[in-house]
Specification:
The chain has about 90 residues and is an alpha+beta fold. The chain has a domain of about 50 residues. Helix content is about 20%, strand content about 40%. Strands 1-2-4-3 form a four-stranded antiparallel sheet. β3 and β4 form a beta hairpin. The longest helix has 11 residues.
């Protein structure tokens, strides 16, 4: 697994760091895996990381991950939107 930092910007208004990295992996990373990857790369707690987008091309092993890294979990909860109702799983019976 190879990681390259493409863009890194400090946003003092929201007290966060906005990053964009390129990761070469065999399979598309899940959101939890991407949070841990970004947290490890920037020495941050994975629960303070919000993944905005994971972009990959069909058949490619290169993925671009866009994320926001907050200074604390409280800051993340204040800024990021939350899902009000839980989503239903496919094929779930009523």
């Amino acid at each position: 697994m190879t990681i390259t930092i493409l863009n890194q910007k400090k946003n003092p208004l929201f007290d966060r760091q906005e990053v964009e990295i390129s990761a070469v992996m065999e399979v598309s990373p899940k959101i939890k895996e991407a949070e841990e990857l970004v947290g490890k790369e920037f020495s941050a707690n994975p629960e303070n990381v919000k993944i905005k987008k994971i972009k990959g091309r069909f058949g490619s092993t290169s993925f671009i991950i866009t994320a926001n890294i907050y200074s604390s979990k409280e800051e993340k909860d204040k800024v990021e939107t939350k899902i009000k109702t839980p989503r239903k799983k496919k094929g779930a019976k009523k």
